[in-house]
Amino acid sequence: MEFTRQGLIDLPRKHDVFVGIDSDGCVFDSMAAKQIQCFHRGFLEVWDVHAFEAPVRETLEFVNLRSAYRGRDRFLNLALAVSFMRERPELAAAPLPDTTGLDAWLAGDGPFGNRELTERLASASTDDGLAAVLKWSLLIDAYVSELGPIPPFPSALSFLEHAKSCADLIVVSSTPLAVLIDEWSEHQLRQHVRFIAGKDLGEKSDHLAWATKNKGYRHTLMIGDAPKDLQAARQAGVAFFPMIPGAEEASWQTLLNDVLPGLCAGEYSRERERLYEQQFLQALPEQPPWR
After folding, report:
1. Can you give the pTM of this predicted structure?
2. Residue 208 placed within a domain
3. Which domain holds residue 192?
């Protein structure tokens, strides 16, 4: 099967229930590994802030893993994290990044990626810190490529094995398709899903809309671990169930034992969905604890 936009639009319905599933940080315990071993490591090296490692890592971890900003674009979160760092007395003497150029670039319409940043640097009359930002981003990609296989959450595997008998499962992710195919194939999970949609196909809300529109599903659900997953579900008119960061195994167990039976029986209510959403949003605050 070719994982194309038209392929997703034409994918026929086999069951009455549809479930879209995020990959990084949801099925695979990869968010923390990528952030701590790649994003944070790159920040420490590019801006040489090893002497301030503890508060730097704490700030980066809050923004990227344990806040309402989890799952956002890396450049947006870099700018936000540095703004938080500038508030912290213990980082007053740290050589923090110059984000003048980054802030100006992010004020535009996007998209924001390595290619676009390279083009911005080539056309800029001054650096304004952008060269270091590009070095950091490229370093992240190099470090991520060196990571070994990251296994799925055990309960995620149990869910996939049980859910495929009553629901059409597809991967809905902002990770590149080639990476997704490798990960899902290596861990023998590909057999459980009917389609894999990555960033190559567009936004998650697009994936959900193309997969469900005019196909007669009785119930539709998106499983995700970041606020942008909730936003995508709402935009596509799909229900949402969250993976609570730090409590993923418990979340998968709730999904498997409490939500899935009701979902397949047509009994997943909006009231229950709101309860899970509230727990999710409470676990991801906007304000950092040091404030």
Report:
1. 0.88
2. yes
3. 5-29+152-283
